[in-house]
Structure formats: structure tokens, C-alpha cells
Design a protein that fits this description.
The protein has 425 residues and is mainly alpha-helical. Helices cover 81% and strands 0% of the residues. The chain has helices at residues 12-45, 48-75, 78-101, 107-135, 141-169, 172-190, 209-225, 227-257, 262-286, 292-312, 318-346, 352-381, 383-400, 405-408, 419-424. The longest helix has 34 residues, at 12-45.
């Protein structure tokens, strides 16, 4: 079933752009909160174990709930799902701001809030991604993904120094309260703009736990029957295992290896944002190679090179770390944009929530494992070792995927796994 079945007209931007741009404000608020909380944990503990724990509690909801959230997204009104997710995340952040305002916060409060905010994101992300494929013509999906990455990169440039600035002039509870305002901005256009819904043959079925489990199982079977998509998910899972600790350990790299502070950390994160902006704009204009997979794997190799350069930077060569982060950011949309376009254009619309949820769960499941391993590695072998190993292996994985036929043929397939085939499986 192609996207054109949903009558995406020439004026598609009038509906898509307001929703899309408003969601970027929400991402800005979330970026400010994330930066502020991670810096607070770094300052309070100075521990790799606590930073690893923060990452762990933020990704556990995705590991445990993504398949179920994706199944619900495929059945519920996706617009309402996004409204509810944004609103709940804002209320949770507001409760944390109250704790900070009355000086009652403890580190476990931070972990609980990170967990609950992540639960909201588990529902929001597949709802937005699955809606995009029904609002944007297929030929523009890769470019939209690239521009989206560029805009998100712009937020990554702005959020860290803005967070550092706000923390220097405002009280902490006031800083994180900004997320409530940006959530209201994100919700507003969703109240007035209709998002197309995919047509399901079983749309009249009453949603019960048994039906939900059946939907989740269909998502797994869909991927199992599509070998290219399954192998690509495994590849992404391995990359998550290798690269996730790089972000988790960066505050400690700044404070312990480079002997620097919050402004240097904001410079590191902003540098990556600059790279994302440039890479996203390049992808948005260029569109990538004729083969989306070739474009993506080129980006994967570049990701490994960026992490490797960052890890090799001597303590007195902070500029080298900046170069590594710019390269890492640049390659991020080159790696992810084409894959996102493949998922949105090739996976049947009525299956996208489940497939994206299942893919997210399988990829994220590798991250807790890497967090368990990275803390002792960082403590006993040093922070930089993981960057060397992770960067080098990422490069090798990107090159090895070029020789897997089912992956290389992915963007030439035409939704070769249908819901009918799943039902007959």
C-alpha cells in the first residue's frame, strides 16, 4: 500500500509544517531539561556509574514498552497520542520543578522523572514517525528526514549553551520549567490539524490485552519475514551497543580528561549539533546516493571515525575533540535519514507503529547491556578505551554490511511483506 493511497495533496506542507515546527519547540525544551539534569548529576556525583544509571532508566521504557506502544499507536488516533504524550511529559517535569523549588529533590527523584518522561516519548516517537509517512509524499521523505535532522541539530547547538546560560541566571527549577511552555506550543497545532489514519481491516475489533499481544506478535512476524529489515535492525542494535556509552561518558571526559567545565561540555554538544545541521542540510539538498543503503552505511563509517577521533584527542587538544564531535554530528543524518525514509516508504502504513516500536525496543535493549559493561571499563581501563573500541568496531560494521545482500537490496523492495502474508503465516 503506497502513501498515495492516502491522497497526499500538493498542499501537504500546510498541515505538516505547523505540526513539525511546533514539535521542534518541544524538543528544545526536552534538550534543556536533559542537559540540565545530566549536568546536575555530574556535579553532584562525578560518577560514571550514576551517569550510566541515568541513561539506563531513560531507555528502559523503550526496551520494555516500545512494541506495545507501537501496537497501540497503530490502533489509536495518532494525533491524540502525541497530545497526551506531550502533556504528560510536561506535567512530570513540572512536578520535578516543584521539588527543586522547595529544595526537596533527591537523586532518585531525577531517575524516576527520567523514566516517566521516557515513557511518554515511547508513545510519542512512533506516533509522529508513522504520521509523517501519511502526510509527506514518498519522494520527499529522505529530504524531510535530512532537514529534520538539521533542525534538530540546530536545537542541539542552542540547547547546551542556552541551558548553561539559564543555569547561571535562573534558579534550577525555573530552567526545567521551560519544558512546560514548549510542550504547550507543541500541543497547540495538534488541536486543530487532522492527521490521516491508516485503514485497518480489523478496525472494529475491541482493544483487549489479547488483541494487543496479537498485534505485537504481528510486528515481530513482519520483521522476521522481511530478512533485510531484520538484519538492518540487528546492525543498528550493535551500533547502539557501541556508540551509546560515548554520549553517556562525554560529561566525564570533559571534567576528568580535559579538566574543563560546563561551558566546554556545552561546546562539545553544540559542536555535534553544528555537524548535524550541516549534515542534515547536505542530505536535504542532495538527497543521498541513488542507493539509500549506500548513503546510510557511508554515514555509519563516518560515525565510527568521529567517535574514534574524540577518544584519541589528548588532554591538551580540546580542539581535536571538537573536530570529532562535528564529524560525528555530520554523519548522524547521513546514517539515519535514509534509513528512516526506507522505513516510512516501504513498511505498510498500518504496520509502521508496530515495526518502529519493535525496532526501537530491539535496538534499545542493547543499550542497558552496554551501560552495565561501560561503567567497570571506564573505572578500570579509563574513559577513552571505550571510544577507541567503539569507534573502530563501528567502522568495521559499516563496511561489513556492504557485503550482506539482503541489506543492500532493502531500498529496492516494494513492501514485499504484506499484512496478508502475516495473517497466513
Amino acid at each position: 500500500m503506497e502513501n498515495t493511497s492516502y491522497e497526499i495533496g500538493k498542499n501537504w506542507m500546510k498541515k505538516f509544517v505547523p505540526i513539525w515546527s511546533a514539535q521542534l519547540f518541544s524538543l528544545l525544551g526536552s534538550g534543556l531539561v536533559q542537559f540540565a539534569l545530566i549536568w546536575w548529576i555530574t556535579q553532584q556525583t562525578g560518577s560514571a556509574a550514576y551517569l550510566a544509571m541515568a541513561t539506563l532508566v531513560a531507555i528502559l521504557p523503550e526496551v520494555l514498552l516500545s512494541p506495545f506502544a507501537g501496537a497501540l499507536v497503530d490502533r489509536l488516533n495518532r494525533r491524540y497520542v502525541m497530545i497526551a504524550a506531550d502533556a504528560i511529559i510536561a506535567l512530570i517535569t513540572l512536578s520535578l520543578a516543584v521539588l527543586f523549588a522547595f529544595d526537596m529533590v533527591q537523586i532518585w527523584h531525577i531517575f524516576v522523572v527520567m523514566f516517566l518522561r521516557a515513557m511518554g516519548s515511547v508513545f510519542h516517537w512512533p506516533a509522529m514517525q508513522a504520521s509523517t509517512s501519511l502526510m509527506v509524499p514518498e519522494k520527499h521523505l529522505a529530504r524531510v528526514a535530512g532537514i529534520n535532522q538539521a533542525l534538530r541539530g540546530s536545537l542541539n547547538i542552542v540547547a547546551p549553551p542556552l541551558g548553561a546560560l539559564l543555569m547561571s541566571v535562573l534558579k534550577f527549577y525555573q530552567v526545567i520549567s521551560v519544558d512546560v511552555i514548549t510542550a504547550i506550543i507543541a500541543i497547540t497545532p495538534l488541536l486543530f490539524i487532522r492527521i490521516p489514519q491508516p485503514v485497518r481491516a480489523d478496525a472494529g475489533v475491541v482493544l483487549t490485552p489479547k488483541v494487543l499481544l496479537k498485534d505485537v506478535a504481528e510486528g515481530f512476524r513482519y520483521m522476521k519475514n522481511w530478512k533485510g529489515l531484520l538484519y538492518l535492525t540487528f546492525l543498528a542494535a550493535m551500533l547502539n551497543f557501541l556508540l551509546a556509552p560515548a554520549g553517556t561518558l562525554s560529561p566525564l571526559m570533559v571534567t576528568q580528561h580535559f579538566k574543563a567545565g560546563v561551558w566546554e561540555l556545552s561546546a562539545i554538544e553544540s559542536s555535534m549539533g553544528i555537524g548535524v545541521v550541516i549534515g542534515g542540510l547536505v542530505l536535504g539538498v542532495w538527497g543521498g546516493f541513488k542507493s539509500k543503503i549506500i548513503t546510510s552505511l557511508t554515514g555509519v563509517v563516518g560515525l565510527g571515525m568521529g567517535v574514534l577521533i574524540f577518544g584519541l584527542a589528548p588532554a591538551n587538544a580540546f580542539w581535536m575533540a571538537i573536530v570529532g564531535m562535528v564529524l560525528l554530528g555530520f554523519m548522524n543524518p547521513i546514517a539515519n535519514g535514509p534509513l528512516q525514509a526506507i522505513m516510512q516508504s516501504k513498511v505498510a502504513p498500518e504496520m509502521q507503529g508496530r515495526v518502529m516500536g519493535t525496532t526501537g525496543a530491539l535496538c534499545s535493549a542493547m543499550m542497558p547491556l552496554s551501560m552495565v559493561i561501560v561503567a567497570p571499563v571506564a573505572e578500570y581501563l579509563g574513559l577513552r578505551v571505550w571510544y577507541w573500541v567503539g569507534g573502530g568496531l563501528t567502522i568495521l560494521i559499516g563496511l561489513a554490511a556492504l557485503f550482506i545482500p539482503s541489506i543492500m537490496a532493502l531500498d529496492n523492495s516494494q513492501k514485499d511483506v504484506s499484512t496478508a502474508e502475516i495473517a497466513a503465516d
